[in-house]
Amino acid sequence: xxxxxxxxxxxxxxxxxxxxxxxxxxxxxxxxxxxxxxxxxxxxxxxxxxxxxxxxxxxxxxxxxxxxxxxxxxxxxxxxxxxxxxxxxxxxxxxxxxxxxxxxxxxxxxxxxxxxxxxxxxxxxxxxxxxxxxxxxxxxxxxxxxxxxxxxxxxxxxxxxxxxxxxxxxxxxxxxxxxxxxxxxxxxxxxxxxxxxxxxxxxxxxxxxxxxxxxxxxxxxxxxxxxxxxxxxxxxxxxxxxxxxxxxxxxxxxxxxxxxxxxxxxxxxxxxxxxxxxxxxxxxxxxxxxxxxxxxxxxxxxxxxxxxxxxxxxxxxxxxxxxxxxxxxxxxxxxxxxxxxxxxxxxxxxxxxxxxxxxxxxxxxxxxxxxxxxxxxxxxxxxxxxxxxxxxxxxxxxxxxxxxx
Length: 405
What we know:
Helices cover 41% and strands 17% of the residues. The chain is globular, with a radius of gyration of 21 Å. Helix 1 packs across helix 15 (370-385). It has an 8-stranded mixed β-sheet with strand order 5-6-2-1-7-8-9-10, sandwiched between helices. Strands 13-12-11-14-15-16 form a 6-stranded parallel β-sheet, sandwiched between helices. The protein has a two-stranded antiparallel ribbon with strand order 3-4. It contains 15 helices and 16 strands. A hairpin with a 2-residue loop joins strand 3 and strand 4. It has 2 domains: 2-186 and 371-398, Rossmann fold (3-Layer(aba) Sandwich); 196-367, Rossmann fold (3-Layer(aba) Sandwich), CATH 3.40.50.2000.
């Protein structure tokens, strides 16, 4: 098939977190599975721009990418050049896959696809959650939803979600306006895991049995304040909270750590990639993801792939995977509950935690490889192109979660 993905920001704009990795991972595997895949995006990178060509298509891991200059207003990633390029290439496309809501490229892609008679899939990427809407720019989002995104959702051949948690949130909002399809994010595994020397260098003398890791954006949605408030109940532990501080939240978190008397046991090393990231993941005793809401939680599955058990919250999509395979603990996210779950896991014998880690590696390889996810998405795309998703007979096969066994 000839597939076009439209996404406001794209690799290597890693400051935007998991969706950047997920969309690129999906695009790569679809190319490997025989599809022609193009990505139409912008050059936005926080307050700046990516250092990429913006006057032509470029190849990135086999994927054809067109970075269009972002215009104004930047907040909704409007790009007149994207509209021009979309008009030129849409005639060759079998299906359009839109990633995000609240953004101009999504509206543009939906409108163009409808006019050209092309089906489109919409992936909200965790953005349609009631609590997150209420907490930030609530009025603007409600207006945009009423005026723009309700029509975008209703016109989709399917709405792709990465977990039953995300699907439930959509239903609560009354936005299940097209068939819902649950397919989790896949995972890019490193060619090799770091050796023991690289692991110990990353953890810089912090002894085993005390290492807690958070890895992801430093963002209010991630619930890091809740994890910091759990730290006084975990006096022997050291927390490494690694990630890009996209909202300038780190000074407030550091101040909270000082107020709680745990500043000497909390480290904020900034964004990390490559061998150092995997060294932290492989060397942690526990990976903790205390998010208020997370459509999936790719960093949690990266930790599992590295053999590290996970403590996470009910609002995280990957929590179901952790719970079903016995790979850690799922808690309500309060500081007391987080502290209890972390302490309980650290109290287990090292041999037991190692056995859980080995089981985690196998579970991720079997169920969350990009190869398996690519096949599921291809099945979805073909059904959308054939018009089967709107059929009352065909649609139910896609409304369940991907089997994990």
